[in-house]
Amino acid sequence: MPKAPRPDLAAMLLPLGRTLVDLERPVLDRHGLSMWAYVVLLGLDVEPVYTQAALAKAIRADKTRIIPVLDDLQRRELIRREPDPADRRVNLVWLTPAGARLREATQHDIQEQEARLLADLPATDRDTFLRVLRQLSERAR
């Protein structure tokens, strides 16, 4: 068999993903968020109100695994959870204004870190990379 013309996508993306997680961790710590808490806050930006089960599915988390995360975010008044008036067995989840502010501040700081990582790329390459990455990310959903 001839040698592959390039590394596999996972072989290229995994080290980048690990680097991004390492860059995000201190930012999340400064904002008092775990990675899962940040994922929840980001997920609630896509849809303003979710059921807990729909939120878990949207962020690809086990619905039982995010309950302690939701409990913490609710205790800190970053989200609200209330029974659905149409089905009281189901909880609806949404961001509070404080949760939205924290999400925006955290995302701003993370994207500043990402900008530094991408700064050495020519602007056209950076724009193309981000556009294609967004397209691939949307397809993966």
Automatic annotation (TrEMBL):
Judging by the UniProt lineage, the source's domain of life is Bacteria
Question: Species name for this entry?
Answer: Nocardia rhizosphaerae
Output the Gene3D superfamilies linked to this UniProt entry: Winged helix-like DNA-binding domain superfamily/Winged helix DNA-binding domain
Point out the signal peptide segment: none
Q: Which Pfam families match?
A: MarR
InterPro entries (alphabetical):
HTH_MarR-typ, MarR/SlyA-like, WH-like_DNA-bd_sf, WH_DNA-bd_sf
Q: Which PANTHER family match?
A: MARR-FAMILY TRANSCRIPTIONAL REGULATOR (PTHR33164:SF57), TRANSCRIPTIONAL REGULATOR, MARR FAMILY (PTHR33164)
Q: Which residues form a coiled coil?
A: none
Show where the HTH marR-type domain sits. Answer: 6-138
This protein is called what?
Answer: MarR family winged helix-turn-helix transcriptional regulator
Q: Which SMART domains match?
A: HTH_MARR
Q: Which PROSITE patterns match?
A: HTH_MARR_2 (PS50995)
